[in-house]
């Protein structure tokens, strides 16, 4: 992969993040001007409420924009890790059932134990995501050949369907829980606030650092286990650390934004086509691409759902479903 093309990709993604942020701050129930964006950001940085109504609208959009960046980056990074670990081009937290497992754990906590705090959501989501990941991997490893891409995908799809049905079964008889979390189930960043972001930020930072540390080992794993062992890579530890990082990133986001699907599928696939399979570049650039995708999806949802809004999870699913079909047809279920 040429250094020039890689540099252009990096510059393009960084520019894309900036444009996505501006669009997110500018559009919604009220469209604001660039001057109002500057006024709103300046007032917010100074810790005061803006006087102009447009600038006030900008200040109200800052938390959801920040959460969209954090959540999109984390989901894309989680998807890239899962694709690298399983060598499966259609692996992502949604397809492998991790999102739905985290969602089921949170919904059960709400319905049966009356939990209300983001901190409790977080630990339930982590527990549900970990148990689901272990279950899917074990089911996908049954039979000759171990955990092949197609078996993991089928196990994840079946698990997602089963757990999704359980989520509905828990919520349907409980009107109060359904009213509170019906939008959360779809997935979106409309309920962003600084308190919940402060709760998940340490886990996102830790998961990201572990992912970047694992990048050289994941490159070796792509050459096959025997070659990786010959290069001195501890394959078991590398897989475990990368898997834990991916699950933590996904579960933390799901706890506060709901189960947003397809971000972890689309973004790493596109980035891989642009810069190649080197995980040292794949992982950070996937994070940038995920931030762009989810921020734009949230902005589009506000525009097409005016005067209300369409949740970002619906927008990503609408775009992601055709992408999944295209990837499956092109890859013919080959391992990465």
Question: What report would you give on this structure?
Answer:
- Helices cover 77% and strands 0% of the residues.
- The protein is globular, with a radius of gyration of 20 Å.
- The two termini are 17 Å apart.
- With 336 residues, it is mostly helical.
- One of its GO terms (cellular component) is plasma membrane.
- It is found in: Cell membrane.
Write the layout of secondary structure elements.
Elements (H helix, E strand, L loop, with lengths): L2 H24 L7 H12 L7 H34 L11 H16 L4 H23 L8 H23 L3 H12 L7 H28 L3 H6 L4 H23 L5 H13 L3 H26 L7 H20 L5
Q: What's this entry about, in short?
A:
This protein is mostly helical.
- Low-pLDDT parts are none
- What is the string of helix and strand elements? HHHHHHHHHHHHH
**SS class:** mainly alpha
Helix content: over 70%
Membrane topology: Multi-pass membrane protein
Keywords: Cell membrane, Membrane, Transmembrane, Transmembrane helix, Transport
Main location: membrane
GO molecular function: transmembrane transporter activity
